[in-house]
């Protein structure tokens, strides 16, 4: 008797994404997210003023406190922003050499979504939706 047809097992995670409305999830994710964010800002050579803008306009005091001590619980918006930046960082590392990947955010880009701006300026000006768009563009390029 023929074996029943089944879909192959997926290699992707099947559980729901973290509930960023739950304080416990934000506590769990905040310190590693901040560590990754500051490492990426260092790799990309992003000025602190621009890094604050990428986080959604954090003022100096809280920003430098986060930089010194990652034991701060972030809100859902900041965790989402950092998540997009981590995805952008990862996609750039897959698509380009290390030096180009690290410099990409500072290079004027002729792609229509950037309209000649640097990706960094585009993401600062456009906030979370612009980060999402940049990430989707890079993910699409990565997929071929």
The gyration radius over C-alpha positions equals: 18 Å
Helix content: 55-70%
Helix vs. strand class:
mainly alpha
Q: How would you describe the shape?
A: globular
Please tally the helical runs, counting DSSP H or I stretches of 4 or more residues: 6
By DSSP, the count of extended strands is 0
Tell me the layout of helices and strands.
Elements: H1 23-44, H2 48-54, H3 60-68, H4 76-95, H5 98-103, H6 119-143
Helix pairs in contact: 1-4, 4-6
Quick structural gist:
With 144 residues, the protein is an all-alpha fold.
For the structure shown, list the relevant keywords.
144 residues, mainly alpha, 0% strand, globular, single chain, 2 domains
What does this structure look like?
By secondary structure, the chain is mainly α. The chain contains 6 helices and no strands. It has 2 domains: 22-78, no CATH class; 85-144, no CATH class. The longest helix is centred in the C-terminal third of the chain and has 25 residues, at 119-143. The radius of gyration is 18 Å and the shape is globular. The termini are far apart.
């Amino acid at each position: 008797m023929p074996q029943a047809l089944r879909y192959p097992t997926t290699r992707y995670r099947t559980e729901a994404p973290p509930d960023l409305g739950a304080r416990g999830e934000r506590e769990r994710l905040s310190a590693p997210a901040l560590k990754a964010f500051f490492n990426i800002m260092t790799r990309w050579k992003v000025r602190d003023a621009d890094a604050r803008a990428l986080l959604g306009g954090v003022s100096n005091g809280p920003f430098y406190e986060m930089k010194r001590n990652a034991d701060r619980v972030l809100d859902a918006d900041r965790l989402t922003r950092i998540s997009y930046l981590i995805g952008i960082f990862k996609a750039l590392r897959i698509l380009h050499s290390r030096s180009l990947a690290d410099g990409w955010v500072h290079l004027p880009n002729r792609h229509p979504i950037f309209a000649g701006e640097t990706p960094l300026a585009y993401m600062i000006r456009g906030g979370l939706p612009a980060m999402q768009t940049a990430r989707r563009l890079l993910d699409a390029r990565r997929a071929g």
